[in-house]
Amino acid sequence: MLARFALQRKGTDLRTEFMAGLTTFLTMMYIVPVNGFILADAGLPMPAVITATALITILATAFNGFWSNTPVAMSVGMGLNAYFTYGLVLGMKIPWQTALGIVFISGIIFVVLSFTRFRVWVMHSIPMDLRRAISAGIGAFIAFIGLKQLGIIVPSKATLVTLGALDKPMVLLGIFGLFLTLALYLYRIKGAFILGVLLTSMVAWVGGLAKLPEGIVSLPASIAPIAFHLDILSAASLALLPVIITFLVTDMFDTLGTLTAVGARAGLFQEGDDPDKSLEKTLEADAVATVTGSLLGVSTTTSFIESASGVEAGGRTGLTAIVTAAFFILTLFLLPVFQAIPGAAIYPVLVIVGILMFTELGKMDFEQMDLATAAAAFFTVLLMPLTYSITNGLAAGFVSFTLLKLLQGKFSELNVGIYLITLISLIVFILH
Q1: Does the pLDDT at position 177 exceed 60?
Q2: Which of the four, 32, 212, 319, 416, has the lowest number of CB atoms within 10 Å?
Q3: What are the helix and strand counts (H, E) for the chain?
């Protein structure tokens, strides 16, 4: 069994892989309660979502460990889960069942394309600065959602949005949780996110701002209210094609970006001949996980950047991922604690994840950048939070980039991939 992972050849051992798996678990455990809150805002029952989130994390991470033999953990993606709830269900008034159908269709496309080099081709077709702008735009979008849910930003008839009432106890609790979690992350405390959530919750419980948990452990909640409730027929419409493409493209960038970062540190996914096809196999596992997750009742599943923490701890093989999956079994039985966590302890995580994604802008050289790229980056980053839509920001960025390049006569800087995404982006605005 262990021979499958080739521990010695990859320069690791059983103890190292175990500790790496535990480290990855601690850094990404937060996704179970956080995703429960986010999808509950879309109308899905939180207990069922918590169980489904834990299940897909276990299944996807273990499958990837066996299939690709890489130390990459998978779960419900931050950013796309927020877009699922606040962009589609609450923003576009799409029923959550239809939204799950959209995730399923995009997942089927993932599976088909993962057995070709199309995903890598599209990734290489798009300039790096535009990819970074998309990441930063999604970061701004989910940070904006987090600040709104915390009550730090509120609607205003005069100025659209304004500063909330900072003297309210729950708003103050959210601000406390935000800076506490930032401090934990700043000092590289393992499990900073989940520690921040739990410590902020304890302050709320002790201060009487939230009810204490009714227990510590319980049997997992049933996923029957959400499993296999996706509406594929309603999702398969021309009007929703741009949204399907948005899920496809965004998950593509997210996955390949994560694998690039993790692979660079672990010496994986190198250029040239790769006898075990680890990159392709990880992409395939990611695609299958998205389809499976939509059937269980959760939004897009993707590779987690938190896998890098396990790599830093020495993880080099799929055994790290399998250990992580095994630890996530514990989260199936912590429903009473997760349900007692107040929103003010959860939503700071969205803000911090948004900050981390927004830092991608720092890697862009604006002094050497031409106007077409700068304008595309600007519209991408600004319009995602302002229009409450990843689709609109992505579409505006590509349309402006292509039109300005054509006006400049820089035809050689455009390619088939750019033209294809620009065409889809124009459809976004036509159907809007």
Answers
A1: yes
A2: 416
A3: 19, 4
Parallel, antiparallel or unpaired: strands 153-156 and 160-163? antiparallel
- If you average pLDDT over every residue of the chain, what do you get? 89
Query: Is 376 a member of any domain?
Result: no
**What are the phi and psi torsion angles at 156 (to 5°)?**
-145, 130
CB-based contacts of 43, cutoff 8 Å, min separation 6: 89, 96
Judge whether residue 275 has pLDDT over 50: no
Q: Nearest 5°: phi and psi at 44?
A: -80, 140
Task: Name 264's Cβ contacts closer than 8 Å, sequence gap at least 6.
Answer: none
pLDDT greater at residue 33 or residue 124: 33
The pLDDT value recorded for residue 432 is 60
Q: Sign of the CA dihedral 233, 239, 243, 248?
A: positive
Q: Is the pLDDT of residue 176 over 70?
A: yes
Residues 6+ apart with CB under 8 A from 118: none
Distance (Å, whole) CA 100 – CA 109: 14
Range of the domain at 324: 10-361
Distance CA 358, CA 198 (A): 25
Helical H segments across 267-342, by residue range: 278-296, 307-312, 318-328, 335-340
Q: Residue 378 falls within a domain, yes or no?
A: no
Report the pLDDT value the prediction gives residue 267, as an integer from 0 to 100.
67
93, 248, 290 from 283: Cα distances, Å: 31, 13, 11
User: Which pLDDT score is estimated for 272?
Assistant: 47
| CA nearest neighbour of 123 among 242, 250, 274, 282 | 250
Residue 388 belongs to a domain: no
Tokens 């600040």 sit on residue = 147
Contacts of 72 (CB under 8 A, 6+ apart): 61, 64, 258, 259, 262, 282, 303, 304, 307, 321
User: Rounded to an integer, what distance in angstroms lies between the CA atom of residue 256 and that of residue 259?
Assistant: 5
> Around Cβ 15, how many Cβ atoms within 10 Å?
9
Helix axes 278-296, 96-114, angle to 10 degrees: 160
- In the DSSP assignment, the letter for residue 2 is G
pTM of the model: 0.84
Q: Is residue 404 part of a domain?
A: no
Q: Which residue in 323, 279, 327 sits closest to 303, CA to CA?
A: 279
Q: How many domains does the chain have?
A: 1
